[in-house]
Amino acid sequence: MDINFIIAAIMTVVGISTPILLAGLGELVVEKAGVLNLGVEGMMLLGAIAGFAVTVYTGSPWLGVVGAGVAGALGGMFFGLFVLGLNSNQVATGLALTIFGTGLSSLIGLSFVGRIVAPFSSIFPPELARDPLLKVIFGYSPIVYFALIMVAVVAWFLKSTRAGLILRAVGENDLSAHSIGYSVVGVRFLAIAFGGAMAGIGGAYFSMVITPMWAERMTAGRGWIALALVVFAGWRSGRLAVGAYFFGLLMALELYAKAAGFSILPSQFWAAMPYLMTVVVLALISMRDRAGSNAPACLGRPFIPAT
Amino acid sequence: MAILNRRNFIQAAGAAAAALPLVGSKAFGAEKVKVGFIFLGPIGDYGWTWAHNKGREQVVAELGDQVEAVYVENVPEDASAVPLIRDLANQGCKLIFTTSYGYMDQTLQVASEFPDVKFEHCTGFKRADNVSTYNSKFHEGRAVLGTISGMMSKTGTLGYLGSFKVPEVVLGVNAYALSAQKKNPDAKVKLVMIDSWFDPPKEAAATETLVNLGCDIVTTHTDSPAALQILEQKGLHGFGQGADMSSFAPNAHLTAIEDIWGPYYVERVKALLDGSWASSDTWDGMTEGTVIISPYNKDVPADVAAEADKIQAGYKDGTFDIFTGPIYDTEGTLRVKEGEVMSLGDLAVIDWFVKGVESAS
């Protein structure tokens, strides 16, 4: 097994992991603010078609990424209007957002079927990006580095900034945060928009980097893996990054095992692995004394202040 | 056949949340005869379902004054297909095409509830008085792709991106491997089943994996152009599936197997209209024009193109069949004796791979 083989395998894992890392980071912030948005898959698809469409029209993948973020954020804000403005059930509204995003992206995408754009690949000089060894560091789309930077940014924001503290307070105890004068609805709305933008950019990774084309439902369920990932990570961004790459490694291992001609476990088992791991982690969390202490206390509960 | 009814977690979650399929077109005239189509993927997949929808459009184009053709897309291959097929029957469809192997038992079930409605199940083998089966000899096309691959591959290691271990895919893999080995006796085929017909990210990752394991040509039996795009980026070669996909990968796309369903659909709908419809089993191929090969890429050398054309001509005039013995399976057991040709009945239920196929299934 030579070094080139390992490098190629690593690059495959990074490709699988990056979209779920982005979407997972966004959802982590949303959930930290006390909102459960099950619409990740829908927002990813909106981002995927928007990123592709903007790139087709402007020729600029950078604008495409911005467009993907905006589209995802708009999808999130649409969700926010219902769950924050009308206190609708978050689970049902999130599922509705997934259905809506799937349908709307398919509709917009009709005129983009069969078209391609140049892949949004590495912006480093070719001698770095194409070097057989150095490409393992420099050979990725800018979105990959953006995702890693955002891991640090989200960790720093939640842990060390006043705004992050407020966001967590809103997620832990919305009534208390409200009573000392913070805008629960405002904070949550911004968090949802951020989550949508991240999911959108994650979706754009599919339509602009891995396979620079549009196909209906091309995210093929990765939004649900991102949701599982947030729980798997115990609502910590560092662990979320590790988890995303771990999930990516599992999926790549499945493919390598099959291509090498042996199967350790039935393939259905591999496909279920991220969810099984999540259940195991949940069980471990709840066995500890500080049972699930990192889960936001107000997660999924509507905010209804006493009048 | 448990593998077909499997619902992995993604699909289960997706089915709950996203896969509420929509009926594609609305009723206009009341006097028109209604026919329905159950589609596996989105009509925009540019592959399998796209090709079936082209066939549906041909029915509308030729018989649109008498017939209305509705469809449901993104129908899962599990129990949830039953209410969707039933719904088409309840809407008044007189003939319903279910266009994937995984709808086999569901089609039979609904057909038993609606004896007056005719059903046509694609690629299956179970029939009833009101259920026909129809299929296309895609493996004839695979023999052409295998011939090209055997001659053009430098490593002799070929990749095959499969979906599920169903006869159609097994036939494709075997025809591909046998044809490649006729040109390069040492050719090996690495097979990866991704447990889905349509999952572009996984198709892409599987293609990268196959390439990393030494494959320089990868053929796909899944429905998106994802693999071709990866091959294009890596400067390698592959083939389109179901439709000419050269627009997605102008350099990587050597040729494609195109599925032409329109003439069959038109014929069957006409039979419904004039009352001559009867349960039947149709398995057409290159001879009837239901499988055609797209124009070759300019990178295909003339001698390779000539050999590929020979295979096509042989199928069209009935002088060639890749499933002619001797054929050994992966264990080295002689499955088909020298000079024997596998019968259509044996092909329809094949579940073993030929020598030189490396797979986990």
Q: Which structural traits does this protein have?
A:
heterodimer, A: 307 residues, mainly alpha, 13 helices, globular, B: 361 residues, alpha/beta, Rossmann fold, seven-stranded mixed sheet, 12 helices, 20% strand, disordered N terminus
What is the structure about, briefly put?
By secondary structure, chain A is mainly α. Chain A has helices spanning 3-32, 40-58, 61-85, 90-109, 126-129, 135-138, 142-160, 162-172, 174-179, 184-210, 222-232, 237-259, 267-287. The longest helix of chain A is centred in the first third of the chain and has 30 residues, at 3-32.
Q: Overview of this structure, please?
A:
The complex is a heterodimer of chains A (307) and B (361). Chain A contains 13 helices and no strands. Chain A is an all-alpha fold and 307 residues long. Chain A is globular, with a radius of gyration of 20 Å. Chain B is an alpha/beta fold and 361 residues long. Chain B is built from twelve helices and 15 strands. In chain B, β8, α9 and β9 form a beta-alpha-beta unit. Chain B starts with a helix and ends with a strand. The chains are: A mainly alpha (307), B alpha/beta (361). Chains A and B meet through α1, α4, α11, α12 and α13 of A and α2, β7, α8 and α9 of B.
